[in-house]
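Section 5.1 Outputs to date
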Amino acid sequence: MKNNKLHHLELEVMKVVWKLTRATVNDVLDNIDRKLAYTTVATTMKSLEKKGFLSHQVDGRTFVYQPLVKETEITHSMLNDLLERLFDNSAEKLVNTLLEVRQTSSEELNRLQKLINDYQPEEISEIQHHKE
């Protein structure tokens, strides 16, 4: 799979499959946040399978799909693409823009500050681990 980018509907479908771990077209229809035609979801799932995101097994006459990629692989890939294309690879620009366009509660800001304070890049974690 060369391209880890998903279109909006593909991502919605994948989120349902990740949540359920195994899903039929009807499972997706029951768990998606908007009304869609059965054929729309079926076509999307077949497309996701063709692209290497899903595989299926047949249970009776029903296709049961399971993910072939982890959600974090996709979110990391899509976020890296967004960072590169819109924010010149700057996490600072991303966070600044996020704070400008989104109403953030003081509780959420405190949690974000704690995440930043507690964050250790992998290189630092590995160095500290080797010292022990």
